[in-house]
Amino acid sequence: MSERQQVLYLWATGSSLDSGTAGWAFHDGTDGAGPPLPDTEPPYPDGEAAMRDGWMLLQSAQLIPPAEGDEHRNSYLHYEFVFERRIRM
Which is more confidently placed, 65 or 45? Predict the structure, then answer.
């Protein structure tokens, strides 16, 4: 029996795991054989809910303040959390 990885990126509205989900991306190394996630709505309301569902936190958001004058400039989503789960195949 082998394992395959699923990876979930959650971008939050704040720097803590209980901040609401602002965006997400899901990468499925099981080619669809593992548990799916919804693709039209956030799969979890926050990072803590993902952990309660068995996702393991790999990386939490880096807290980098915006440069002076850039506080309201559009850019990438700052609060990125990376999760994984392994599926036995």
Answer: 45
